[in-house]
Amino acid sequence: MNDADASGLLRQSRAFKHVAIGMALLDMQGRWIDVNPKFCEMVGFARDDLLSRSYESLTVEDDLPVSRRRVHQLVSGQIETCDFEKRYRCSNGKIIWVHVHASRVPATRDCDSFLITQARDITSERQTRQALADSEASLSLALDGADLGMWHWLVRDGSFTFNDRALKLLGYQRGEIESRRDAIMALSHPDDRQALAEAMNRHLHGEPAVFDRIIRLQRRSGDYMWLLARGRVVQRDLMDRPLKVSGTIMDVTKWKELETRLTELATTDELTGLLNRRSGVAVLESTLDNARTEGNDASMVLLDLDHFKAINDQLGHDVGDQVLEAFGAFLIQHKRQADSAIRWGGEEFAIILPATGAVGAMTQARRLFAHIGSVAETIDELEQLTASMGVVTLRCGESARDMMKRADALMYQAKRSGRNRIVSDQIE
Fold first, then answer.
1. Which residues make Cβ contacts (< 8 Å) with residue 205, sequence separation at least 6?
2. Which of 34, 67, 68, 39 is nearest to 51 (CA)?
3. 207 is an active site residue
4. 119 and 22 in contact (C-beta within 8 Å)?
5. Does residue 243 or residue 139 have the better pLDDT?
6. Average per-residue pLDDT in the chain?
7. Nearest C-alpha neighbor of 25 from the set 90, 105, 79, 96
8. DSSP per-residue codes, 232-265
9. Helices and strands (H, E) in the chain, number of each type
């Protein structure tokens, strides 16, 4: 051996002793030839003590089949290298998990074939992985129990993914939705998109701290479902810029349907399907506010069904209810789309006419007046039906209350004048 070879062997020997990972050399029968200090430190045995043992003496019995199979594969030449995990029993009786990387070094003219292994203590890593697995299992049970799905948004590249539970809620299979933010936005209801994008961008800038919004997403079947989407930034870069947003979605369609129904009950007259008076007053106030802001006109028609008490007394309250219900349907059918029809109370009804001046208001009132008789044709017991109307148009500085009082006075003027007529204080 020349000096260069000797120097090289010396360096290799020193590296073996000082490398910061447990290393061991084994002969082809699986006996230790040498172990480095880091390996001894890991298992708590002195070098000489280890060299008098076989590797199997440290291996936990349940892990011997896997360990033996790997050694056999290496020794027989089936594989040149392998990685696996097993447990060692240390000198103090403690059991540790190690990751083993083993290689077969072929024989040379001067040296028989041998095995070299690197062993790293992964006990803490295994515990962390198990804790994570347990946590994910608990989370999965919680999500299933709460009917929740999860989503993740990688801000930089724009990728957006749903987990299997979220896909199931929406009726999709994996791969049927493109993993892009704009693809998800395309699934949202057109009326929600702008507000959703603005809310997400505000959250990225920290306002609010938690993203929380009710949205509509399109299911695979084509219909939309209401979802409560919640999330927050879960990862940031060194400059505190958001990298990842994660959250949940929950089906709240039944809640929204209930909310809609409660809103209808609170704002709608149950018999006629028209707005009730409270909601009608709110619509009138809003209409007048818009008219003042935009410089438009606004008008109102207030009407009372003639001789309605006689209908109830002579034909019965059931017929009276039929008349009110039929008249409500009549107003819905004959009003303009922008107008609002209201059951003002009893047999009184109102129609709010936005962006309509005095001439237009009288035109609409006369159109309704001309067809009121058709309502009687739908009810066998009723021979005829007429109404008395008061028509008003917003005056400068007039409040909604004053406008209602003026309409009421004109309607009663029509009744005192013989009923079945329209009265306006601006146009005859």
1. none
2. 34
3. no
4. yes
5. 243
6. 87
7. 105
8. EEEEE-TT--EEEEEEEEEE-HHHHHHHHHHHHH
9. 14, 15
Name residue 85's beta-bridge partners: 99
**Is residue 331 within 8 Å of residue 349, measured between CB atoms?**
yes
Domains for the chain: give ranges and CATH numbers: 3-121 (3.30.450.20), 142-257 (3.30.450.20), 268-424 (3.30.70.270)
pLDDT at 163 over 90: no
How many angstroms separate the CA atoms of 300 and 352, rounded?
Answer: 5
Structure tokens at 297: 């006109």
Among 347, 377, 381, 398, the one annotated catalytic: 347
pLDDT band at 428 (very low <50, low <70, confident <90, very high): very low
Residue 106 has pLDDT above 50, yes or no: yes
The pLDDT, as a whole number, for residue 360 is 95
User: Under a CB-based contact definition with an 8 Å cutoff, are residues 350 and 408 in contact?
Assistant: no
Distance between CA atoms of residues 345 and 418, nearest Å: 21
Whether the pTM exceeds 0.85: the reply is no
**Strand 422-424 relative to strand 387-393, pairing:** parallel
Tell me the pLDDT tens digit for each residue of 233-259: 989 888 889 999 998 888 888 888 877
- Structure confidence at residue 351 (pLDDT): 97
* Averaged pLDDT, 56-84: 89
Which tokens hold the place of 20?
């910061």
How far, CA to CA in Å, does 265 sit from each of 240, 270, 294, 309?
A: 48, 7, 32, 26
Cα(426)–Cα(130) distance, rounded to whole angstroms?
83
